[in-house]
Amino acid sequence: MTAPAPSLSGHLANVLLCTDPEKKRFVTREVPEVQVSFEGFVGDRHAGLTRLADVRTPWFPRGTVVRNTRQVSVVSREELTEVAHAMGIPHVMASWLGANLELVGVPRLTHLPPGTRLFFPEEATLVMEGENQPCIHPGRAIEAHHPDLKGLASRFVKAAWQKRGLVGWVERPGLIRAGDEVRVMLPPPVTYSLPAAPVPVAARQEQVA
Amino acid sequence: MTAPAPSLSGHLANVLLCTDPEKKRFVTREVPEVQVSFEGFVGDRHAGLTRLADVRTPWFPRGTVVRNTRQVSVVSREELTEVAHAMGIPHVMASWLGANLELVGVPRLTHLPPGTRLFFPEEATLVMEGENQPCIHPGRAIEAHHPDLKGLASRFVKAAWQKRGLVGWVERPGLIRAGDEVRVMLPPPVTYSLPAAPVPVAARQEQVA
């Protein structure tokens, strides 16, 4: 048996949706609450049971229909404050990154392992797939808010490394509201390592000599 | 950047299905191949986009409709040989455990972390959710094959600890055949730990004294 994971919780500062019907914009805007179905956040551009493989899943041919495990994007206010500091700007808004949820109070959010669950008070439960690796698009959104500063877009990728939050999918439908308390449950810790390879005879002899 | 995971592969000794229409039996039987959809293995009793929460998910009220991430059960022939040895019987068949896939050649299969992908030659791709913890039912199936030996059912739970394989779900549909080569891709390694808590002044003084 493994030791129980520490109990973690936080609260939800913001719920955000991207509702551009033409899917040309990825930035999100704040809403007071969202209905959560097995497809994702109702009305958000990333909702769906499946998605088309893209640059995030280079092990599939581009355009392959695969299960959508990137329904929802989650960021940490504390991490975004660190990103802003590293970029030399006052703040980085969750909406500029196209995030759906902005949490406060969960330490090292982006480091939570795959399989971590987020429980919300009104039944909705999300499972985290993994880190959302920074790309240049949010950097461009940030740049658009600071036309006087040069090179912010490319600086974002470095500044946001391991601080850009997580993506995940809906395990249980429900309702999520801004201000909700959020309970975080880590999966059992696992470490995979290959069994030690047998040392070849020649190498053993060298070790002895 | 993290170091790339070692490349792992194995092959598929058996494909098995549980097709009891009344869902009274959980043991599986060998088939030459299986069609794989987003619901799981076509015709298997565990197929479905959703499932009802049970003893495996005690954080949900029993019977809650949740996403089905236990569509498929995967075991390792090498691990089952170890289980049989620990139980003092000649072999433990994958079918007795209700497994759907029996792999050969993937070391320490049950320890593969959540998010591990199994790629098959004809497009099907599975993602592992995590360990399938042993319960007493497969032990009873084993006992039925050895009516002369007493107490096998309860010994199974101990003998199969961390050797009972994994459960997972379909990321990409396709076809899986007995004898297929299987490519295994580990997710990026992650270790989550809480930041060190600031030491209270009183405790610091004790440490100094």
From TrEMBL, chains A, B:
Transmembrane region(s): none
UniProt-listed Gene3D superfamilies: PK beta-barrel domain-like
Protein name: MOSC domain-containing protein
Domain MOSC per the UniProt entry, residue ranges: 28-185
Molecular function terms, GO-annotated: catalytic activity; molybdenum ion binding; pyridoxal phosphate binding
Species lineage: Bacteria, Pseudomonadati, Myxococcota, Myxococcia, Myxococcales
Species of origin: Corallococcus sicarius
